[in-house]
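Re-run with default settings, no changes from the original entry. Doing this only to confirm the output is reproducible before filing.
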Amino acid sequence: MRITLFVFLACLSACAATSGSVLQTEPRPDLPVERKAIAAKDPLINGVWRSRGYGWILGVEDGAIRQYEAGGFGCYARPEGAEGQTAMLSLPFSQYRLSTNGETAMFMYGPDTTGPIFERLPALPDACAQPAKASVETSFEIFLSMFDEHYAHFGDRGAYWPKLAHEAQVIFNANPTEKGFIEAADYLLKVLQDSHTRLIAFTQEGRQRIQYGLGETLPRIRKENGETAWLIGLIEQLTGEILDPGARHVGEDRILWGTIGGEIGYLQIFQMGGFAGLEIDDPDWAASELRILDQELDEAFAAFANAKAVILDLSNNRGGYDEIARRLAARFSDAPFHAYNLSADGDGLEPLAKKIEPEPDHRFTGPVYLLTSDVTVSGGEIATLSLRQLPNVTQVGQPTRGAFSTPLAKILPNGWIVELANETFSAPDGEVFAGRGIPPQKHLDVFSEADPVGSHGEAIRAIVALIRETDD
């Protein structure tokens, strides 16, 4: 059996929500369902556009897009050279929806995503045409300003922003250099403990990534035995001891499925994407991912047709493409359902109620046991949040990590990259799980410190025993 290292994608979901508001369903007001590709000669969208809530201005001319960072600090053209440094910076806007009056548009990364709302401006603001001051002092000032304007989870992370910003500023003032910037950012990010919020700095020492909030399991595994050996051990345990002969490990090794005792279905998804082996900026990436996912799930669910129950294992899911998370959830319902709400602060729109339509052919609507852990993150949490709305699904294991938002990618004047969580998911009833994760309905120890491989096997066996006991 071929086992490769997993290359995990950042969450691509556009997410958020608040309670107590009138929810909307797609399409957004005054934006038609039809979407079009951004073509080389498309006069309809030529011009200047300002986003609602995301701090961007776009200059669009005959298919070419120039992007600007804008906010309370002013406006400047994005420095060149950062594109492709992160997953979010590898995604150009490729689709749009235009309002009937031509004054409002939604720009999107792909055919199955939503995106920020933009409003047409008469011209590029004068400030945007001025070269940005790339000094470390200016870049740090804008770094703090971007958090002030866009970060959505200070309260969820137990942080009081005025105090945190002051403390970071004091650290930087003591050493107003690149080193001092990194020290101040390290302090700020360590307090937030949000794995969807990070700084990527480029210094004489090379590329430095500052990121916290990876939960307890992954840092411990990486420090002790190494992640590769752990993953191989988990897969070999499943295929050699737990699953029936003939288990399938497919989709660039990101999907593992089979049966247990000929009566229980088992499906593990390690990542919401990467099934096609294409780079994220490949024009065929999204369509290829969905096509391969559908092919593999059709085969798996055909095998699960007469199963007593299905174990859906997302305990090692590192996130990815949110359309994949929704398509997975669609396999376990026979009716449309309200999966979650989403919104972004400052975009002027009511929260969006995200609905999921059932898969028309190969689906399973019997008992489902959804296994999660603190490794389950991002797109894995979108799937978890969606599936919890179904009466036939029981979440077992440990709480998810609690990092949902698409990272909002910003480039500082000095070329350093900031990605931060500017959106908030909520369940249909308005409950938010950012910072604390989605708790299971039944606790199982999934990746214990004493035996992080064997404990996963024991968790699967405990679910099997529960299924058989319930069936009896």
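The chain has a mean pLDDT of 90. The chain has three domains: 36-129, 136-211, 217-471.
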